[in-house]
Structures are given as structure tokens and as C-alpha cells.
Amino acid sequence: MSLDIQIHRRRLDNGLDVVVAPDRAVPVVAVNLWYGVGSRNERAGRTGFAHLFEHMMFQGSKNVPKNGHFEFMERAGGSLNGSTWFDRTNYYDTLPSHQLDLALWLEADRMGWLLDSMSQEKLDNQRDVVKNEKRERYDNQPYGDWMERMQRLVWPEGHPYRHTVIGSMEDLDAADLEDVSGFFRTWYVPDNAVLTIAGDVEAEDAFTRVERFFGEIPAGGERPGVPGSTDLPVPMTEGRREVVTAEVPLPRVFLGLRIPPFTDPAFDAVDVAAGVLGSGRACRLYARLVRTGVVRDAFAYPFPLVTGASVLLVGATGFETSDPDDIERALVEQLEDLPNLSETEVERALALEEARTARQLERLEARADRLSMYAQLFDRPERVNEDLARLRALTVDDIRDAARTWFATPNRATLTFVPSGASEEQE
Are the CB atoms for 258 and 232 separated by under 8 Å? Predict the structure, then answer.
């Protein structure tokens, strides 16, 4: 199976990278804007800014009132949202194609003129929203801080991935309006962004419209490099572990393994190996551990990162009577046995990934997002048409070698959650 997405690309004089992928099948268009800034770009003492701006960007700009983005888009029959990641921040809109100008105007107004409407009141308000989000998602959820703990185990002191995307609440409290404005002026600029339009649009017309709305926004110029130290051994040269006794219902074990960066050609084979381990009801973790009653649930998936290394996350939840050491031992056994995977297992994992990719790219918003990602990280949006062929070119030996190099190694981070009641009963 191959893909043949039409792709046109142009760069404005101010540096904005524009990708257009026409598809006239339905009268809908997806607009996706990737900014090359994420939590990795935050300096020590000022973490959480990238995620904070995911919220601030919906608080109005020079010509758009507070919450106007949502109101205008919903009235036009569209939808919109944003997300923050370690390596990027993105904003995306899907709407009827005859309303394309609305989406472009909204995105351009906040790129070029957000600071015109910035105020201490808005900063304080959204800072409180982020704090509540952290309380709900991290502090008051069982196992809620697992990722924060795992990041400290996997990434060494000073590495830009060591802190969470949501950041430190102390850092956000210490930030003033000038700190936040400076962050915006540095990163939310056209020459640090990719704008993708996918759907019912003609390429030249789309470029003309983008030039009209974004062309007058000035370039940002040179930006600082990623702070901290990004050099680290991959795989890990020594294992690290932490045991947490907490108010959780069941014992759970997480393993974190350093794997190649998403931009490394070796990542694809690792991704398929992870699929053999943890994708679908026929994967090894489900067939060998869940179905047999060793654990209650299990997972394995990579976090695709680009700075120094990515991370593979593997985990399982036991039962009330489970010994956490037994859970860890069962997971490690599956990791160490993965180099013995069969051709049938690889074919199944490849088929699942191929079907998943095809289904995702049927959706305009997912297609636009992947084009933005490939333009920004690889400088090749056309890479999307090679996704399936690239996977199918992998051999069983490639996957076995990846499993041997990255999975069957003792150098991993281990995070264990033990229910507080269980430790009391043992006493």
C-alpha cells in the first residue's frame, strides 16, 4: 500500500513555512500551525511557559476578543484546539472550506498581535487554570505523578527533557508579564513556524490567502539553542530505580528505556518492535501476561522525541495480591525475550501500523498535523508518502536487532508504585 498525497510548499519572505495538501473530496479544510517550541526550550527557573501559552493563545489578540477564537470557529461550524509537547506547540482548526479565511485570520492575529491584548489579569487567570490542571491530572490522580518521576529517572540533571511539559508551579508563580512576553516574542514568530492547509483548497489560492494574512508579520530572527546539556549515552549506561508508596489501588510498575531519537533512521525498527510487544490483543504483553492472569493490564509504546534520545515506556498493573517484584520480573522477561520474535509477529505489527497510519491520514486534521511535523522535524513534508513503504522495507532481522540493542538490556529506569495499604499489612 502506498500513499499519494499532493503536497505543495512555499516559504514567505518572513520565514513562514507553508504546506498545502489539496483534497477536494469533501468541502472541509484543516489548518495546522506548528511552532518550534516546547518544554525543552524552557530555561531553568522558567519552566511551564510553552504549555502556559497553549492557554494564553486562546485569550484574545489585537482584533479578537477573549474566547473569540472558540466563538467565531463554532459559529462557522468548525472546531479548534491546541497541544503542547516536549519539542513543539501546535494549534489546529477544522472547518468548512469556504471559511478558510476565518481560520487564517484568527491564527495570524494571535501570531502577530497577541501581545497587544496581553494583560496581568489574563496571565494570572490562565496561570490559575494551569495550576488547577496540574492538581487534577498530576497531584490528585492515582499514579498521577508517574511521568514526572520517570523523567527524572530517564534524563540526567540539566537535560531539557527532565522537567514535565506542564512545568513547575513555582516557576509559573515567579514569572512576570515581561518574562512571558519575552518568551512569546522569541518563539511565536513566522520563521519558527510551519502552517499546513489540507483539504478542499487550490494550492495557489491558498498561498495567496496565507500571504495576505501572514505576510506583514515580521520575522523573529535568531533564537537561543536548547538550554542545558543534551549529550547522554543511548542506551543508558546504568539503571536507575525508585519505589513509591502511595494511595494507589493496585501495584504498578513502569519501565523507561532510552531509544534513538524520532529523527534517527533506527527509530522505525524500534517502533515496530514496540508494536510486537504492546500493540493489539495478540501482542506479547497481552497474550503472555494479561490473558494468562499474571497482570491486570500492560502497555508498551515509544515517546517520539528528537533531542538526544526518545524513550520507550513499558508498564503493567498487578492485582491486589501481586508482588511488585514479580510484575517487574515478568516485564523484564518479555523485554529480554523480544529478540526471539517471529516473522508472523512482525507481519502482524506491520499490518497494525499500516492500518493505523492509513486510518489517521484519512482524517484531514491528522494529515495536516503529520505534514507540519515532517516539515519542521525533517524539512520534508513529502515524507508522509513514504511512511508505509519505509515500514514495509524493514526486515525481521532489522526488528530483532532493534530488540536486542534497545530492549534486551539491563540499563533501564524502573518506577514502582506500591499501595500504602499493602505496605501497612506487610508490617
Answer: yes
Among 288-297, 321-330, 371-380, 402-411, which is the least confidently predicted range? 402-411
Do 39 and 170 lie in one domain? The reply is yes
Distance CA 174, CA 295 (A): 44
Confidence (pTM)? 0.94
235 belongs to a structural domain: no
Supply the pLDDT for residue 421.
75
pLDDT over 70 at 422, yes or no:
no
Q: What percent of the chain has pLDDT over 90?
A: 91
Render pLDDT for 130-175 as a digit per residue (tens, 0 to 9). 999 999 989 899 999 999 999 999 999 999 999 999 999 899 898 8
Query: Is-contact 116 62, C-beta < 8 A?
Result: yes
In this predicted structure, the answer to whether residue 424 has a pLDDT above a threshold of 50 is no
Task: Tell me what pLDDT residue 2 has.
Answer: 57
Domain contains 408: yes
Domain holding 79, by residue range, is: 8-214
Tell me which of 214, 230, 260 is where a domain ends.
214
* CA–CA gap between residue 415 and residue 153 (Å, rounded): 8
Nearest to 181 by CA among 53, 90, 89: 53
Q: How many domains does the chain have?
A: 2
Residue 201, pLDDT > 60, answer yes
